[in-house]
Amino acid sequence: MCARAASQVPGNPEKRAGNGGSGNGPPSPERRRLATALLGTGLISTIVSFLYPVARYLLPVMQEESMTAVTAAKVSELKLNSGRIFKFGSRPGLLVRTSGGTWKAFLAVCPHLNCTVQYRSETQQIWCACHNGTFDLNGQVISGPPPKPLEEFEVNVRGDEVIVSRSRRA
């Protein structure tokens, strides 16, 4: 059987493959456009997935500077020698009521690796679980790798509300 006669046989796989298959002709324009679109979309997605983290690192999100004060808790919610995490804008804050009854508030973000710190009533210290860093109740580093103290907030009690403000104590 000659090659021409074989291509005219109804069950011949070469004939069913059409222009884009294993036949002798070039791929059809529709298949070429589809392949180009899929490869282009994959390439663009890959580039974006690499550039997005770089852009987030180089252009950090602006913090909410308009947030100057927040009601962190009610006086009745915190017992003596206890602490509580509260939301100060988009970041966590730590409100501490000492065993002497004074109020302290800090940005609850460790300056070492930005982990959230917590109050430990048994030691009366602020503790970072990431690398076991500890701070005293003035926010100063006692031990561990934190390079600087915690940012301290001002605390005012108005009625039954504990108001924490961004302005630092002098």
CATH architecture descriptor of the largest domain: 3-layer Sandwich
Which overall shape is indicated by the principal axes computed on the Cα atoms?
A: elongated
- Separation of the first and last Cα atoms: 100 Å
Helix content: 10-25%
Question: Which CATH C-level class of the largest domain is it?
Answer: Mainly Beta
**CATH homologous superfamily grouping of the largest domain:** Rieske [2Fe-2S] iron-sulphur domain
CATH topology name of the largest domain: Rieske Iron-sulfur Protein
What's the order of the H and E elements? HHHEEEEEEEEEE
* Computed structural class: alpha+beta
Q: From the alpha carbons, calculate the radius of gyration and give it in angstroms.
A: 32 Å
Largest sheet: 6 strands, antiparallel
Strand order of the largest sheet: 1-10-9-4-3-2
Please state roughly what percent of the residues sit in beta strands, choosing from under 5%, 5-15%, 15-25%, 25-35%, 35-45% or over 45%: 25-35%
List low-confidence stretches.
15-20
Descriptive account of the structure:
This protein is α+β, with helices and mostly antiparallel strands and 170 residues long. It has 2 domains: 3-58; 69-165, Rieske Iron-sulfur Protein. The chain is 24% helix and 30% strand. The chain has helices spanning 3-7, 13-17, 29-58, and strands at residues 69-74, 82-88, 91-97, 103-107, 117-120, 125-128, 133-135, 141-143, 152-158, 161-165. The strands form 2 sheets. A 6-stranded antiparallel beta sheet has the order 1-10-9-4-3-2, with no helix packed on it. The chain has a 4-stranded antiparallel beta sheet with strand order 5-6-7-8, with no helix packed on it. The longest helix has 30 residues, at 29-58. Mean pLDDT is 84; it is low at 15-20.
